[in-house]
Amino acid sequence: MHVETFGARGDHPLLLLHGGGVAGWMWEPLRAHLGGGVRVIVPDLPGHGRSADETYVSHATTVAALAGVVEDEGGPATVVGFSLGAQLTVQLAAHFPERVRNVIVVSAQAVPMRATRPMLALLGATAGLAKNDRFARLQARQLFVPDYLLADYVRTSSGISRETLLHSVEENLLFTPPSAWRSYPGAASILVGAKEKSLMKRSAALLHASLPHSDLQVVDGCGHGIPLQRPAWLAQNIRATLDAHPDPA
């Protein structure tokens, strides 16, 4: 798994986990607003971007690998995840709480979809559309990808294999919070866009109800694309979290 880092080793580790169909580049607008004093860790998840040659197998195997990344960086880390990356954030916090100081979970589906087999069959039959430039550009607009990152999106989309697409989407559609999420001791913020589908809002409510000490926030004016729609706002939110939970002296 390709991992890029920014900032000095020894600064507060901040792990940023991108969504499905994109890659680590999606955090570029946010990083521009973060400021210093942070060791930013940005993986390209298996099957995506510069990790495209490694098929996405499952959330479980990816989370185990991410736990190793945090350990190598000297953790524990603040973890911020979007969409598929938000599901991984929940699992990482649940199963490796000693490596996760606190989390920000952005637009995580946590209510499983029904009738996934027909959906996956259709996805498999139309997987080639991801390599179509026009289709990819239309999808990029749905995620609020800025023009200067459009080429990165098209390249990432066209590089995702059918196997990675099917595995990652199936894991995403069937995801439920692990039972250990209920006992995660760290601070947790659950974010969802006010304009997202009702399924996503119900998912955010479920994640919050499962971890009562978490904070739930519905972000006005946003759909499923908060990190790219409101990068400055999210960076400020992350910075406030870092200031509230500094590294031990």
Briefly, what is this?
The protein is of the alpha/beta class and 249 residues long. It has helices at 28-31, 59-72, 84-95, 116-125, 133-142, 150-159, 162-174, 198-210, 226-229, 231-244, and strands spanning 3-6, 12-17, 38-43, 77-82, 100-106, 187-193, 215-219.
What does it look like?
The protein is an alpha/beta fold. It has a single domain (3-244), classed as Alpha/Beta hydrolase fold, catalytic domain (Rossmann fold). It is built from 10 helices and 7 strands. A 7-stranded mixed β-sheet has the order 1-3-2-4-5-6-7, sandwiched between helices. Helix 4 (116-125) packs antiparallel against helix 7 (162-174).
Uncertain runs are none
**Average pLDDT metric:** 90
CATH superfamily grouping: Alpha/Beta hydrolase fold, catalytic domain
CATH topology: Rossmann fold
Number of DSSP strand runs: 7
Radius of gyration: 17 Å
Question: Which structural category fits the helices and strands?
Answer: alpha/beta
Name the CATH architecture.
Answer: 3-Layer(aba) Sandwich
User: What's the tally of helices?
Assistant: 10
Identify the overall geometry: globular
Widest β-sheet, arrangement of strands: 1-3-2-4-5-6-7
Terminal residue distance: 32 Å
Helix content: 40-55%
> What's the CATH class label?
Alpha Beta
- Any idea how many domains? 1
What profile does the largest beta sheet have?
Answer: 7 strands, mixed
